[in-house]
Design brief:
Elements lengths: L4 H12 L8 E3 L11 E2 L8 H7 L2 E3 L3 H15 L10 E7 L5 H8 L6 E3 L8 H9 L6 E3 L1 E3 L5 E8 L9 H15 L7 E4 L18 E8 L4 E8 L3 H16 L2
Parallel strand pairs: 1-3, 2-3, 4-6, 4-7, 9-10
Antiparallel strand pairs: 4-8, 5-7, 8-11, 10-11
């Protein structure tokens, strides 16, 4: 299903009323992403998550920004490096295809700005999903924005290393991410890669377009005790339809 939330809820109610065999569902809306009876469709979320997707009757496909944020946060919480009540900021940018119909139409008509921050009421619909799938108890400060390009995404998580309760180094963050995805990736087709910082210390948001890949990196300045974790993905790939196809293949065992 690729519907608005209300229509997705209505459709699921129709399926619930069916007698006999009921179809398995992948829902791309926000409606079921925190629902206890639905499996969250990020196979690399935790050990065994791919099997849960494989066996599920109903899978909630992740949101694009949420995929990048959860991919960075969950391994660090599981490793004990990031407390659940830690106050996080998540400045992020996406191509205009991730901003909904109105934003897409404005960009295609040439009437949209070159760069625009939005959802500044600070209540974006991805926040409950991020908290639900990471175990965060402190609401993160999520600030999305959109650039004048069609697709591509970067989710950032800046950290003052001295604010973490343990003596955490950038290398510890990288190692925790690498260890997590070494366990949860499909060895034959890994979709999440943990990589070192780029040589030029730059990151192109569009480099993974038209793929189902996500790259995670830790950039740091140890002298100042600063780090920024970066997730790069295609908001239409691993952040949307690519993830849906990955989940579909798991559910069909192909």
């Amino acid at each position: 299903m690729c519907l608005h939330d209300d229509a997705a809820l209505e459709t699921v109610a129709m399926v619930d009323a069916m007698v006999g065999h009921q179809p398995r569902i992948i829902d791309a809306s926000t409606a079921h992403r925190t629902h206890a009876d639905w499996v969250y469709g990020f196979p690399e979320l935790a050990l065994g998550q791919a099997d849960r997707v494989r066996q599920a009757q109903r899978v909630a496909n992740p949101g694009c920004y949420a995929t990048g944020a959860i991919a960075l946060i969950r391994p660090l919480i599981d490793a004990g490096l990031l407390p659940r009540d830690f106050a996080l900021s998540l400045p992020s940018v996406s191509g205009y295809s991730g901003g909904g119909r109105g934003m897409i139409e404005a960009y295609e008509a040439g009437t949209a700005p070159l760069f625009e921050a939005y959802a500044l009421g600070l209540s974006h619909k991805h926040i409950p999903e991020i908290m639900h799938c990471t175990g965060l108890t402190c609401r993160p400060l999520f600030v999305p924005s959109v650039g004048n390009f069609k697709q591509g995404m970067i989710v950032q998580m800046p950290l003052h290393l001295s604010a973490l309760p343990k003596r955490v180094r950038a290398a510890d963050l990288h190692e925790a991410l690498a260890a997590h995805y070494a366990q949860t990736n499909d060895p034959a087709n890994p979709c999440v890669k943990v990589l070192p910082p780029t040589d030029d210390l730059k990151l192109d948001a569009t480099a993974l377009n038209d793929s189902n890949l996500m790259e995670l990196r830790v950039f740091a300045n140890e002298t100042h005790g600063h780090a920024v974790l970066m997730a790069r993905l295609d908001n239409l790939g691993k952040g949307a339809s690519g993830a849906a196809v990955q989940n579909l293949r798991l559910m069909l065992s192909i």
